[in-house]
Amino acid sequence: MRTWLFWLLLLLVGTGTDAAAKGPASPFRDLKPDDPELAVIATAVQEGVIAWPGLDFRPDDPANLYEWTAVVAGLMDVFGLEATSKVPPSADVPGDHWAFGQVVKARSVLGPAEGRSFGGDRLLTIERLRQDVQSLFKRLRVPPPSLPAWLGPSARATRRLVARTAVLVLSHSRQHREPMAEPPPGPTVIEGTSATHHSKAPPPCSSKEACARRTGCRSVLPG
Length: 223
Fold this sequence. Notes:
This protein is mainly alpha-helical. The chain has helices at 2-21, 38-46, 65-78, 100-110, 126-139, 159-176, 208-213, and strands spanning 188-189, 196-197.
């Protein structure tokens, strides 16, 4: 009996070790465990940057503007960037479209649509991708890195490359983004009074009688 339990325990431990060695689980049913960029794509999904509809990722399909815009909006959410102006997208993006909110949010980074329509079904070009990445780093107040070779002018803007670009923006911005400046100290209201006092210490009272008449006075008078 003990021998049987020993081998069962050993099998379970070995199975868990093998599973851990294989890396993250695939977030899409068509991504194979041996995909060289499974970890990158899984990171983008875990961060909430890639939240495209559907169960298949189709990594080598070209990405369209809807998909890329959703990634930009996801990156804005990660870093707490608000849209500078919430301009509704063009009439060709209906309110019930899955990317409607992302298009509205990301317009401040992506700029106005070319022409009269957004054209979200158009394929993303590598030139547009590179331009938008630079705009993202500018909004994040991050010095842009030298773009890697896989983002060169001859690259194809596939869904796989979009995921890799999203993780590049995440990792580089977290390393180099300047911390937000602390806001200046604001006025403080002393509890139980209607008086508003600023954080700067008030001048001392001129006498004990004046101090007694002064609500909330903290002056120390001689004698």
